[in-house]
Amino acid sequence: MLEQRLIYFCAPTLAGLKTAGLFNANGIADRDLQAEVTRLAPALSYCGLALRLFYKEGRAPLVYLYRQSDLARDLADPDIRAFLQTYDYCLDTVDTALDDLEKRIKTCPAFPHEVGVFLSYPLEDVKCFIAYGGNKCQLCGHWCAYSQTEAAQLCFNRYDQCSHSYRNLYRCGHRLADLAVAR
Asked: Rounded to the nearest 5 degrees, what angle is found at the Cα of 130, between the Cα atoms of 105 and 63?
């Protein structure tokens, strides 16, 4: 069940188009989820991908699939670093940044929307989403775009085409290990 959700919700990440994907593991028993993560991790690691589970009491776990090298690149960006440091993120390593994201997910009364930078959303759009409470966006798709809407729409289209292709390939019998692109 986790494999299917990774294909359905994280195809652009699997294809190397996007740094990461995040989805809710609602309906998957924790024991089964842990077993699936353990089973899938080696094939994903071979392709430069990693899985991490985020837990918040009373909520279904969140599954975070990410390209380690891409996330390290994103977190090295001076503007992203400055932004995340306003939320007290430790950015020494990818793991310390993800540990802080996990803490924010567990402790924030509302969802910590800075997560957008961990999903390769444009920083300006993440800042505007936070500032406007999700309102006033010019284009809504894979994220709420507040500027550069033509570029955002092209990106949404690429992600949609990738997701459609991966879903079709999965339905035709291709497995996650076949579809994860090594980079």
From this structure: 30
